[in-house]
User: Fold this.
Amino acid sequence: MPRPKVIIAKLGLDGHDRGAKVIARALAEAGFEVVYTGIRQTPSQVVETAIQEDAKLIGISILSGSHLELVGELMRIMKERGLNIPVLVGGIIPPEDRDALLKMGVAGVYGPGTPLREIIDIVKKLTGVS
Amino acid sequence: MMNINELLERARNWDKLAIAKLITMAEEGVELPIQVVRRSHVIGITGPPGSGKSTLIYTMARKIPQDRKVAILTIDPSSPFTGGSFMGNRIRMQELTSRSNIYIRSMATRGIRGGLNYATIAAINILEYAGADYIFLETVGAGQSDTDVKYVADTILVLVPPLSGDEIQALKSGLMEIGDIYVVSKSDNQASESTYRDLMAMVDMMKEIKGDEWRPVVLKVSGLYGYGVDELLRVIDGRFMELMKSGKLDSALVGRRVLEMRLYAYDLLEKGLNEMKDLERDVASGKLSPQDAARRLFSFSKPRLDHVAVAVKNIDDAARKFKDLGFRVSDPIIVEEQGVKVVMVYLGNTKIELLEPLGPETTVAKFIEKRGEGIHHIALEVGNINEFIEKVKGAGLTITGEPSRGAEGIVTFIHPKSLNGVLLELVQHLSLNE
Assistant:
């Protein structure tokens, strides 16, 4: 049985990681091997982590409001390093920024209140677990 | 997607992406063509959960000169229920993630044992091949299975946090026998002094019992503040020089290979446990005792010999002979479709199938009439009968008919005329609810 590895990371300067931990824990319960990076990660740290762990997906949590800059930087470094895996973004993302994130190549944006089931299903789909 | 040789080539140049892909392949059970030549100092770090293993590794790795390659393997437990794992050891090391000389990988225990697994050893082989100078192996930090680390690490650090007075007693049995360096962690805490004294006293006592061969070092460190870490690194490097000079570094490879064999056997066993549906069925129906079924698992790679069938005139008589020889023998069953009465004689991972014809017109009766009693056919168990039939056809052999349901699964035969006079049965066993 495949056990895709998933990275859950807190990008930028915000220390509120309860949501990220809940998601990480829920994905572990769903059978994934989940690496949680902890808070205050730079985009480059997250990309390096995903490379070294051979991760199949990156989940980012941002509550600070700097999602456009940080995710933009993340996507740029991923491209530069030849890392082509789906990125999901969660946290406080104003509706008007969703499209901008999707345009950057983000595979999905999930805000507060998204049922865990929905997140598990999308992660399964994106990592090829039936 | 790169092939294995390209990945190996790139891994040799410390290409982290290639190293990561190779480790994933090892985790998925791919055998990699790696000949290990010793060059890494493999340092096992063990100790109870929360004793400061990750933090100490972080501090050591940060202090190692950046022209030395450092690999960190950190093991987290898998859930025995969901198979998933929440891996948080990296959190304390993330600052090092972007350093070009450092590679960090989280691995889940997976599997049935909960300590090291086959993939851990494979990962160490890959990292040594890739040219790591130091490989830090952080164990789960619980229980006796952690003593496996002895066979793969050149140097073992056992962390003992302060205020673990009574736990030191508990450590005696397992961890207290394997350490090369005992480290009182969190030595910024005042209570560490008495833990240090307790440890020293115990090591002295153990030295008296074990003699000169075992001379562990006891140190106090604080991973968080860095106290004592420079000295710890000096002791580690000094040990490496000694191991190299004495030839122990090379001879340690033997232990690693034996452990690799053992852990691979556990992987195969687990795979076998998941695949041997016919054994589960036989246990459920009471045909096999749980113990007999478990013993049969020890050869499960397919195709394997399922049974040898012997045509007999009087099955009760034949069955009694085997019973007298001490074998477990099934009750006779009638299989109308094949025109036979059947008794199974259980032998380790295979069986003898006794066949008595039900009437003079049956194929087995004709067989006995023509050739006398004796071996009637040989049966092989295959994983997927339809795939195997394609191979049979590809080899130009004749199948007697479409696969059909037999006593224990789906069966068909290869005609003896196309196979040197041997009637070969192919069996695919079905699981309980199939």
Summary: The mean pLDDT of chain B is 88. The CA atoms of residues 410 and 428 of chain B lie 5 Å apart.
